[in-house]
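Reminder: ligand-aware prediction takes two inputs, not one.
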Amino acid sequence: MKINYDELLAKAKEVSKNAYAPYSNFPVGACVLFENGNMYTGCNVENASYGLSLCAERNAISTAVAAGEKAKLVAIAIVAENMLDCPPCGACRQWIYEFSPDAELIFETKDGYCTTTIKELLPKGFVLNTKD
Ligand code: THU
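Here is what comes back for the chain with tetrahydrodeoxyuridine:
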């Protein structure tokens, strides 16, 4: 499918304004695109117990799941207010991989955007395969 990179980045940037990041002051927004064209956004939500903080990517994916989305995840754009080309943390890589090992990732650069794939960032993502 044709991906509108600028639109995904704009939506990620917009939702980053809602980030709850009083501890890190590092607002992040993510916009996830599915094969049927649906898009969902999420921002990071921190907690006084720092380790409980939720990343923007997982928030966006959770929002999609809660909305009943069943289509294949195609792409996710990630925008951090204070950093260009902000790659997802390890936990979020595994979350993205869960919903598509073919996902494309989109980041903001100085003069536009750059892309990579989840396979590139997480070459051997975990899949639950039992022996039988
Ligand atoms: N964070 C994200 O939301 N996504 C990322 O890809 C990297 C990190 C958040 C977690 C925490 O709220 C803040 O950024 C600083 O680590």
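The pocket of tetrahydrodeoxyuridine is lined by residues 21, 24, 26, 28, 44, 46, 53, 55-57, 78, 86, 88-89, 92 (CB under 6 Å). The chain has a mean pLDDT of 97. We will return to this case in the review session.
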